[in-house]
Amino acid sequence: MIGQPASMIAAPEAGDEIPEMLGRIQSGEHLEQYQAVRRTKSGQIIDVSITISPIYDELGRIVGVSKIARDITAQVRAAEQLAQANAALQLSNERLERFNQDLERFAFVASHDLQEPLRMMTVYSQLLVRSFPGQPSDDAAKYAEYILGGARRMRELLADLLAFAELGAHGGQVPTASTDLNVVLDKVKQNLKAAIDENAVSITAERLPVVNVYEGHFIALFQNLIGNAIKYRGDDQPEIRVFVEQNNGDWRFGIADNGIGIESEYLEKIFAPFKRLHGGDIPGSGIGLAICQRVIERYGGRIWAESEAGRGSTFRFTLPVGARAKAEGG
């Protein structure tokens, strides 16, 4: 290259910027650094970062330039790959966002629209039994009870599905207000009064704080957790303890029971929608704990379970002291 023009190492297909740069230097413009492409001796095209400094004669006239070119091909390729990955990730996120919106919309519509057919099934199965002359046969009464039981379970499932979809609905902030969780707990105990009395459940609770939340969310939260503690009771009289402490700007709540417990391998899986460890042996839709998780995460907290099979369970969740509900994805 000695004695040859610098343009020999420019990549013709990328355009030769050397004459332009020399012209700008000659006109007195200072160019400290710019990016270009060059061709190596083997013909390989590389990305370079070029620093140009003018060379002056004894009279201060520009008579040439000194150039330093650094090979930045690896950095450029890495940046291109990162940009491509980010673009693909953004596209995937947009598709996932649309899918979640469609799924939530379907769940919302289905939960509403399927209620009417279920109501009709219930009404007409009852009318069918009553239409028999005299006392209905044992078989007819049994079959009608099957229909009514199935419709009842489906209504419960749709109600839970609707609650789950509403918690994930997009849009503005959820209306919140100062909510006394002691009042929330009293309302939950009243809602569960029949199950509490039937199973002689003992519930003890520490004084709970007043927090800025939407009351309906936390009624659903406590009702699911306490309802599960009753549902998965053991042979002993059910005992449920609600407690709370403040730690590093968070409220840390716990709901402990002396029920049948949960095997350690299932402690993280139980929060997935429709995950039921005991199949149809114990009634339920399998959405309750997923609802609890959505409630807590929407307020910036987290929820988890601690348990051993046969030794009861403790469900713990955190809530920032200044928590406010946020829109999904907010």
What does this molecule look like?
With 330 residues, the chain is of the alpha+beta class. It folds into 3 domains: 6-71, PAS domain (Beta-Lactamase), CATH 3.30.450; 91-167, Helix Hairpins; 177-320, Heat Shock Protein 90. Helices cover 43% and strands 21% of the residues. The chain is built from 8 helices and 10 strands. It has helices at residues 18-26, 73-113, 115-130, 138-167, 181-191, 193-198, 215-231, 288-298; strands at residues 34-39, 45-56, 62-71, 177-180, 202-205, 210-213, 239-247, 250-257, 303-307, 313-320. It has a 5-stranded mixed beta sheet. The protein has a 3-stranded antiparallel beta sheet with strand order 1-2-3, with helices on both faces. A two-stranded antiparallel sheet has the order 4-6. Helix 2 packs antiparallel against helix 4 and helix 7 runs antiparallel to helix 8 (288-298). It is elongated.
- CATH hierarchy: architecture of the largest domain: 2-Layer Sandwich
The geometry reads as elongated
Total helical elements: 8
Uncertain regions spanning at least 5 consecutive residues: none
Summarize the biggest pleated sheet: 5 strands, mixed
Distance between the termini: 59 Å
Name of the top-level CATH class of the largest domain? Alpha Beta
* Relevant CATH superfamily of the largest domain: Histidine kinase-like ATPase, C-terminal domain
Fraction of residues in H or I helices: 40-55%
- What is the beta-strand fraction? 15-25%
What structural class do helix, strand and pairing data support? Answer: alpha+beta
Compute the average pLDDT. Answer: 78
Count the beta strands: 10
* CATH fold title of the largest domain: Heat Shock Protein 90
Please state how the strands of the largest beta sheet are arranged side by side: 5-7-8-10-9
Note the run of SSEs as H and E. Answer: HEEEHHHEHHEEHEEHEE
Compute the CA-based radius of gyration.
Answer: 35 Å
**How many distinct folded domains?**
3
